[in-house]
Write a structure and sequence with these properties.
alpha+beta; 66% helix; two-stranded antiparallel ribbon; elongated
């Protein structure tokens, strides 16, 4: 586990993780989302703003999970179709 100092919405934070690139990606993503929601110029964030960000991130996560499940279903269907075709082949 490493520690890395990052800047998010005008404030410095020390984040911990296994991968410095992943830590930086998270920091950049959060900074971008905060700027989208509350403006480019950093302002103090109160509980209601933090809660709004959490709701937005939860919605994104739910949408990604739904999309991943849909993609899993498509892949599973294709594998089942392929297995059926393989089973229909006459090798001898």
């Amino acid at each position: 586990m490493i520690e890395q100092e990052v800047e998010i919405y005008g404030k410095k934070y020390t984040l911990r993780g296994a991968n410095p690139e992943a830590i930086q990606r998270v920091a950049v993503y959060l900074d971008q989302r905060l700027r989208e929601l509350f403006g480019e110029e950093p302002k103090p964030i109160d509980f209601s703003k933090a809660f709004m960000l959490a709701i937005n991130l939860a919605e994104e996560l739910c949408n990604l999970e739904k999309e991943a499940n849909h993609q899993d279903e498509i892949i599973l269907k294709k594998l089942e179709d392929l297995l059926e075709k393989v089973n229909q082949l006459d090798f001898f």
